[in-house]
Amino acid sequence: MSSRERILGRVRRALADGPPGEDTAVERGYLRQHGDLGTAQTVDLLAENLADYRAIVHRTDTEELPYLVARLLAERGSQSVLVPPGLPPEWMSAADATRVHDREVNTARELDKVESVVTGCAVAIAETGTIVLDGSPDQGRRRITLVPDHHICVVRVPEQVVSSVPQALERLDPARPLTWISGPSATSDIELDRVEGVHGPRTLEVVLVTAGT
Amino acid sequence: MSGTFVGMPAFPEAAREAVHNRTLRGNLRHATHTIRAKRAKAVAEVSDWDALREAGARIKDRTLRHLDRYLVQLEESVTAAGGVVHWAADADEANRIVAELVKATGETEVVKVKSMATQEIGLNEALEAEGIRAYETDLAELIVQLGKDRPSHILVPAIHRNRGEIRDIFAREMSEWGRPAPEGLTDTPAELAEAARLHLREKFLRAKVGVSGANFMVAETGTLVVVESEGNGRMCLTLPETLISVVGIEKVVPTWRDLEVFLQTLPRSSTAERMNPYTSMWTGTTDGDGPRAFHLVLLDNGRTDTLADEVGRQALRCIRCSACLNVCPVYERAGGHAYGSVYPGPIGAILSPQLRGTASEIDASLPYASSLCGACYEVCPVAIDIPEVLVHLRERVVQGGPVIRGGNKVVLKPAKGHAAERAAMRAAGWALARPGALRTGQRLASRTRRLHPRTLPGPGKAWTGTRDLPAVPSEPFRDWWQRTHGGKDGAK
Q: How far, in Å, CA of B396 to CA of B379, rounded?
């Protein structure tokens, strides 16, 4: 007998104490979102919660975005910046740093030499201060937002912002590789006290961008 | 469950040593009290906590009730998404599968994400025996591995170490395993984290094989979820060419939507955060992004035996948040090592004796490692009634009876060492069923009260070592009631 059959057989015998019953969906008495905030307030809450977990939050509009990105890279002193294949070219139009395009042949070691990365995102969650990446062309492979030490993530507000975790899951496609990011890399492993900055990007800058007038 | 802690003394003996270690008690008190207050605040932020807790318990119960179906569905979804599913009935089989998968890649080292399941089966030791070195990459696991130590907490395995001890371990041991600790390393947590970053960077960049567990597996989509903080998980899950995940069969949930409950309750319960810094979700393999080969090893190792126990099976709801450890007065004083298992604290006291059986001295003693205060049940995000299971397991230890071990029904003998307790309970049962005998006995006890010793002789001696024997009243209650008509007219 294979271990598969053995385990499934054990499960069935273990459950023999009662009828399996109909497999009905569970009752979900919890809220779809907490509170009833308007659009602007939801974006404010996102900014507040991102900052609470030490992400650096900036707000701008589409016209000013290239200058903000250029300034953030210059202030950081980044000579090179990774860009995913589908990043809107105008976002980088004012930046001086050398653009490094991610290719499949790039090794992790090569990525480690690049100082910054700029991406979009799939959705942002206000209640938890979370941005979610799903590997779309403006976000790229998972590794490009992991190896460099500085991540600039652009969130289009308000259209990419939801209030809650349940609303975010509704918008996401499970077939895509997903990375949920809430602030920069951190640990609670020393005396259960939170310290920022371990293996992931130690600086996370989130740019909330509204459509220009 | 494997014999990682074979030969452990029973809990009271191991705990006696621990409670006299002042550094350990100080470290544990500091850490557990810090997290306790923070958790309470994080939980208070969501107004529907009770409903989330209830839904979490129901989702897990539903899954367990139909576990065979969801495991088969999960296997189909993972396979359809490009993964390969393996089934392991016990620790040895799981270790063998992983070792063979690693050997097939031609590699001799793996990077590991923190995982309770691989701790449970002793994977690192098994790989070492096959000439494969496993590098732990979670900060606390790294501290344990470098310090040749044992884990003492589910979430923070090095909770028994303070910053000064961690500094010393890094300065002394890092050079043995790779990049040495920076010169002049101090004990500030930020510097210690930086030292770990530098030490492990090289290993991540060259790694070809990653090994992980998972917090959740979604049956309908085949998605696996790893919840973490440092980014070491992301490194191990995305940079290597081959990923092997070893996951307990109880970690499956039916639907994608079910994650909305646990992604709200788990971070708040474990690290007291609204959301942990990083959560990775992957479904099989993705072209051009992440590992090209993905293997999922589904682990039984005592879980189906636990499932067969109608009272005890609720322990399989556990999402390994460790909130029960952080509030437990026994854990706070005795520390994690005394529990003799990778699962310490209240959840360990009900999980280890079920996964491993109650044959060893340590496992038979674990259901007693509690004052039954119930704080663990209060904070549990999936409402496991830990005190109920503890009492149930005490009964099993004392009385014996039929249980399932390794899928087969066996009858346990009553444990040795509980003879006095059993005799006392039998005597009490006999007397309480016979009012006449009870009355005579009570009157006799009242009349001879001046002759009663302060401490019990024989097996009762230990009990009265720390307690006074209650004084017997001069007259039994029933006699007083009859004589005074229930105390009417203020009669004494």
A: 26
Q: Which of B321, B399, B313 is nearest to B364 (CA)?
A: B399
Q: Which domain holds residue A52?
A: 37-210
Cα gap A83→A144, rounded to integer Å:
8
> For residues B191 and B274, what is the distance between their CA atoms, to the nearest angstrom?
25
Kindly state whether residue A15 falls inside one of the protein's structural domains.
Answer: no
Give the C-alpha separation, B53 to A29, whole Å.
Answer: 10
- Give which of A126, A133, A124, A131 is closest to A33, Cα–Cα: A126
B273 chain-A contacts, CB cut-off 8 A: 53, 182, 194
Tell whether the model's pLDDT for residue B210 goes beyond 80.
yes
Q: Which residues on A lie below 8 Å from B52 (Cβ)?
A: 30
CATH code for the domain in which residue A116 is found: 3.40.50.10420
Interface touch A125/B32, C-beta < 8 Å: no
Does some domain include residue A8? Answer: no
Under 8 Å between Cβ of B400 and B418: no
Helix pair angle (B419-432, B386-399), 10° resolution: 100
Give tens-digit pLDDT for B258-317: 999 999 999 999 999 999 999 999 999 999 999 999 999 999 999 999 999 999 999 999
Domain count, chain A: 1
A4 in a structural domain: no
For residue A101, the chain B residues in CB contact (below 8 A) are none
B355-392 burial, b if ≥16 CB within 10 A, otherwise e? bbbbebbbbbbbbbbbeeeebbbebbbbbbbbbbbbeb
The residue of chain B with its CA nearest to that of A200 is B231
Look up tokens 């969650």; give the residue.
Answer: A125
pLDDT in the model for residue A193: 75
Determine how many CB atoms are found less than 10 A away from the CB of residue B440: 12
Within a domain: residue A14? no
Whole-prediction pTM: 0.92
Q: Is B154 helix (H, G, I), strand (E, B) or coil?
A: coil
Contact across the interface for B257 and A184, Cβ inside 8 Å: no
Cβ–Cβ gap B232/A49 under 8 Å: no
